[in-house]
Design goal:
51% helix; 16% strand; 10 helices; Chitinase A, domain 3; 4-stranded antiparallel sheet; alpha+beta; two-stranded antiparallel sheet
Length: 282
């Protein structure tokens, strides 16, 4: 059984509402920019334009990948209306004149400037050429390992696993038995030895192609019956399969380089709480 991180799924609607609710709380659109694109709502006479929602949708590709704009519009128009209502109430309460607002406004401006600067530096350094270079490095250092493709049947007890093995010995179909007995998916695909929990790997990698385990294999997940379908030497993944991870790595490298360059150009002095200079670490 593969080592994996258990998670949970969030519905597309929930993602939309959470993302946009946090988004509109700090980003204010230029209302005139949407004037020729239709009125979405009027809140105490102030207009929310359709183009305002279109801009929000465009700014969030992760939302675009989940829902079409029409659904986004229907689910989030009330979020924009509520945001406008709260902002109008804040203006009426003269929140923008308070010292706390002014303090947080400075922080927000600095945060936005930092964000846009880092995005600019990433855009300048993250491109197809950089991704290809990292992929070429991956291929050149790739070490081929033995890998197998397998199926398994996972059950709660050794007795059940023994029962499955007896039926396999009589010639019954592995997939049919998996559908009847297994509490996990049958297909495991290709994997190397280090991708599995040790007990599973030890058993699977000592089997021949076409062989099923003659004894139940116990792991922390339960009792397994394994079928080895193929054995081969692993090959580097295709660029299309690893490009998202490589692009993320190039992005992290670009950010790290940006900070390194800034540190090299700057004169930085740090002090303890007592006001004593902190020696620069080597």
């Amino acid at each position: 059984m593969k080592k994996r991180i258990l998670g949970f799924t969030i519905s597309a609607v929930a993602v939309v509402v959470v993302a946009v609710a946090s988004f509109v709380s700090f980003k204010v659109y230029n209302a005139n920019a949407g004037a020729d694109k239709g009125v979405a709502a009027k809140v105490n006479g102030e207009i929310i334009y359709v183009n305002d929602l279109k801009q929000s949708y465009a700014d969030h590709p992760q939302i675009q990948n989940k829902v079409p704009f029409e659904e986004f519009y229907a689910k989030t128009l009330d979020v924009f209306v509520n945001s406008k209502l709260v902002y109008q109430a804040a203006q009426a309460a003269k929140i923008e004149e308070t010292p706390e607002y002014q303090r947080q406004l400075i922080t927000a401006k600095e945060d936005l400037a930092r964000k846009l600067y880092l995005e600019k530096m990433v855009d300048e350094q993250v491109n197809d050429e950089a991704v290809q270079k990292l992929y070429d490095e991956y291929k050149s250092t790739f070490e081929s390992k033995k890998e197998i493709r397998a199926k398994h049947i996972l059950v709660d007890s050794e007795d059940k696993a023994e029962e499955v093995i007896k039926k396999l010995k009589k010639g019954e179909d592995f997939v049919k038995l998996a559908n009847e007995y297994s509490k996990d998916q049958v297909e495991l695909g290709y994997f190397t030895e280090d991708m599995m929990v040790p007990e599973f790997s030890k058993a699977a990698f000592n089997m021949d192609k076409g062989e099923f385990s003659k004894k139940p294999v116990k792991t922390e997940f339960g009792w397994h019956v394994i079928l080895v379908e193929d054995i081969r030497a692993s090959q580097p993944l295709e660029l299309k399969d690893v490009e998202p991870q490589l692009r993320n790595m190039v992005t992290q490298q670009a950010i790290a380089k940006t900070f390194e360059d800034l540190h090299q150009k700057a004169k930085i002095e740090k002090f303890t709480l007592d006001g004593n200079p902190i020696p620069e670490s080597k």
